[in-house]
Amino acid sequence: MKKIFSAVLAAMLTVSLAACGSKTPTTPTTTGTTAAPTEKTIEFTLSTPDPDTSSVTVAANEFAKKVLEKSNGSIKIKVYPNGSLYGADPSAAVKQLGSGALDMLVLSTSLYANFEKKFNAISIPYLFDDTRQFTDYLNSDTGKELLGSIDSMGITGLGYWTRSFRQITNAVRPITVPADLAGVKLRVPNNPLWVNFFKEAGAIPTPMAFGEVYNALQLKTIDGQENPVDVPVSAKFYEVQKYISVTNHMADGWIVGVNTKKYGELSDAQKKVLEDVTMEMQGWKVDYDSKQDQTAIDTLVSKGMALNKITAEQQQQFVDVSKKLYPTFKELVGDEAFFNKTLEFVGKK
């Protein structure tokens, strides 16, 4: 059984479009800059959308700890999980961050796509071969251009953190090929890229706020959902789901954003601390997720869920669905030049 779990973990960390091995992403090193001890103290709230035990909230708390240390106590960050400061409404969260009602926010790139369509490029199904390629893209000039697009919203993007690739859980059957999705009512984010892909694959995509998912699964309003594998653990979906299928179908990142006006209250040294720690945490989170994904798989199986992984041949059927939709995805990205630059970066143009 341990050998099976190890193989699954390898599959999750290496999306096998090109059958290439995943490597630990390389991120720029930071110099460990520390703010001067005489800096004035500034307090921030930092909101995350998921529970205390989720990967993103664990990372947010580690981020707050490192910032406090490296700023010599001059930047104090209090983390609020579960979207508690913005009513668990991600669109409201982005607006509140821009207006200054929120100080800092860690929110997925796919949700920013509701405000800047180019963020859809990140989640094109089966775009990235592995975690390293994904991280390199986020840190590239193309990724930085994308992050800079939120400046006009009154938000300063400190950087990106990665998420593990997304997997499918459901209560109907194991998912091995697109045909297995036929008739499955699958919760997806409120994003047309997800809707188009899963509809073409044969599912019945059902956009729904994340906070409503557990009850909908319990009441059988929907059959399944898709997320990185830590989510069905922290949200206890194993209580209402039977199958976990390792499909690695999409990437999604986290944007670490701060209200621009509040950010302007910091000294240059304090700003550098936030930027450096954000980058440092990118590598920290990749390592953390690689370990926690295996723990999550073990937990889901121990709770009674049936695990399956798809073969390279089966995955190719999903890849073909995605490629068929490239003209649609280009429209959803809304910028042909940026769409083409993204495809060129990953070698899929």
UniProtKB/TrEMBL annotation:
GO process annotations (BP): transmembrane transport
Q: Could you say which residues form the signal peptide?
A: 1-18
Q: Which InterPro entries match?
A: DctP_fam, TRAP_DctP, TRAP_DctP_sf
Q: In terms of one coarse class, where is the protein primarily found?
A: other
Question: What keywords are annotated for this sequence in UniProt?
Answer: Signal, Transport
In the UniProt record, does the keyword Signal occur? yes
Q: Quote the cellular component terms of the Gene Ontology held in the record.
A: outer membrane-bounded periplasmic space
Q: Which domain of life is it from?
A: Bacteria
Subcellular localization(s) per the UniProt record: Cell envelope
Q: Name one Pfam family in it.
A: DctP
Task: Give the record's family classification.
Answer: Belongs to the bacterial solute-binding protein 7 family.
Q: What is this protein called?
A: ABC transporter substrate-binding protein
